[in-house]
Amino acid sequence: MASLPTEVKIAKMTWLALRNSNLAIKLFHRDLESEFKKQQEAGGVVNVKMPIKVQSALGRVAQTQAISQKTTPVKVDYQRHVCWSQNQVDATLNKNPKTFYNEVIEPTAIELSTQLDLDAFSMVKDVPNAIGTAGTTPSTYLSIAQVAGRLTNLSVPLNKRKFVIDPDYQVNMADEMKDITGSKKVDEFMNEMNLGNLAQFDFYISQNLPRVTAGVPDGTPLVNGANQTGSSIAIDGMTAAGTYKKGDIVMFASCYDVNPVNRVTQTYLKQFVVTTDFAGASGNLGISPGIITEGAYKNCSASPANNDAITHKTNPSSGTTFMNNVAFVRNAFTLAVVPIEIPDMPGVGYTETREGISITVTKGWDVKQYEMVYRADILYGFKTLDETLACRHLG
After folding, report:
1. Residues 6 or more apart in contact with residue 179 via CB below 8 angstroms
2. Least confident stretch, 18-27, 280-289, 372-381
3. Mean per-residue pLDDT, 256-273
């Protein structure tokens, strides 16, 4: 590597450090990079095909149903960079690659990796399914098992389930495990980013999970009108100061969840995530998923009844914010990291692309300051593909 141009060496070293420190790159669906190459004329948007659902019929006579292929757009519109300059005198006097790595490359990779994780894990706010109490850090094995049970009720595959938790959760679970597994397992649980397998999950630790500010729905929130379906629902009964915040989870009194495969009604209420901030005594509350009460895509037992009470699942037990740990399988969320084309000029920059990860390093000479200016860039996009393949564990 010593004979390579500086921008190439920087890109290769930063790529390796980024790959080793980023969770989203390791855990999320990552098959879209090739599609962006095919559809560059689409302005950085790829329409991802979603699974088709069908419904069987009983009897000899055929009952024909319409088949439609749903798609969801994924856009690459996040560009992050770190830019620095190096005085040429300093570059002449200090050519120690280890010092350069410690002082420049590693901090650059950590910054880019952290911000990418923060952006990508914001998708957790799209997930309507949740276990636990907002504002109370989980502390029991039972609560982990309840998350596993909820995913099973949602027909999420048992294999390759991931669980990303925050450091406070990690500490509580280590204390819970000490009498079950012994001190060696607890030490492993505390010392690694990959915390190992527990309750059919591969556990990971991250300080980049989203902490969400909850709304305060003052008054007595009620459903305003019967037989409502779709992605918004009319509500009333709040005070003028009442609010719901994007990422809040709500439930309606007579609307129960159903298994997405066999469409059998569950014993618990359907959970919906609020999609846009809401304020006021009455109006239309945006929710996801949209209410569907019949057919192959049926996702709840029935429409809410008029004057159904609205339960605020994410009402923190203390304070105004709550933590969102998340259990999921790979296809719940997608992340695409796309190579940036460098200028058509020799020696200006270099893009390192391996394993679906791309980082671009460019440079420019500032003759007035007698220094070389460098920047490392990543270009990416992300999207929740199927929120039913995930479950939050509130903290």
Report:
1. none
2. 18-27
3. 94
Residue range 282-298, pLDDT digits in tens: 999 999 999 999 988 89
Average pLDDT, the chain: 88
Separation in Å, CA 259 to CA 58, 72, 150, 297: 19, 22, 10, 11
Which CATH architecture best describes the domain 215-313? Beta Barrel (2.40)
Cβ burial, residue 158 (10 Å; 0-12/13-18/19+): exposed
Are 82 and 376 contacting, i.e. CB atoms less than 8 angstroms apart? yes
Burial class of residue 185 in the structure, from the number of CB atoms within 10 Å of its CB (0-12 exposed, 13-18 middle, 19+ buried) = middle
Q: Which residues of 76-113 are buried (b: 16+ CB within 10 A; e: fewer)?
A: bebeebbeeebeeeeeeeeeeeeebbeebbeebbeebb
Task: Label residue 366 exposed, middle or buried (CB < 10 Å: 0-12, 13-18, 19+).
Answer: exposed
What whole-number distance in Å separates Cα of residue 52 and Cα of residue 199? 30
State whether residue 72 is helix, strand or coil: strand
Angle, CA 275 vertex, CA 267 and CA 66 arms, to 5°: 70
Find the angle CA(139)-CA(143)-CA(146) to the nearest 5 degrees: 170
**Domain spans, the chain:** 6-54+68-123+332-380, 127-206+322-329, 215-313
Report the chain's terminal Cα–Cα distance, integer Å. 46
Q: 0.85 exceeded by the pTM?
A: yes
Residue-wise pLDDT tens digits, 151-177:
999 999 998 899 999 999 988 887 877
Find out whether 332 and 385 touch, Cβ atoms under 8 Å: yes
